[in-house]
Amino acid sequence: MADPLIASAKAAAHGLSAQSARMRVVSENIANSSSTGKTPGADPYQRKTISFQSVMDESVGADMVQVDEISRDKTPYELEFKPSDPAANEQGYVKKPNVDLLVELADMREASRSYTANTQVIKQVRELVSMTIDLMRPS
Cα(68)–Cα(21) distance, rounded to whole angstroms? Predict the structure, then answer.
């Protein structure tokens, strides 16, 4: 089994990578929250979702998180009556993206907090290694 400090740092690094991917997905959803189709009746932007999985890292003997899949949300689109819009269908309705800004902002906040927590773990590991080196120096 590897050093617990190395395992902690590696787990935190995997966490940073996973949360970074999560923030990219959420940012894309927010950026496209009002993107409609280009032609009459066309589907608008479809919200993306991200899922994670736990994977055993044999080199350190610990579970690590990684991105499992980025997929599309199957929630139905909302319709808005807007007959003058180029994306309106024959009845005058435009399909709106299935992105809920409140959900996206909450998800971004959670991802940001998780990212910060993983950063703090790496900082603590670095401080512990530095303290150990200091203790090993001859006085």
Answer: 11
Q: CA angle 30-69-17, nearest 5°?
A: 75
Distances (CA, A) of 7 to 4, 14, 34: 5, 11, 43
What is the mean predicted confidence (pLDDT) over 25-35? Answer: 97
Q: What is the CA radius of gyration of the chain?
A: 22
In this predicted structure, what is the pLDDT of residue 100?
96
Amino acid at 4: P
Q: What is the pLDDT of residue 6?
A: 87
Contact 98, 47 (CB under 8 A): yes
What's the rounded Cα separation, in Å, for the pair 34 and 106?
18
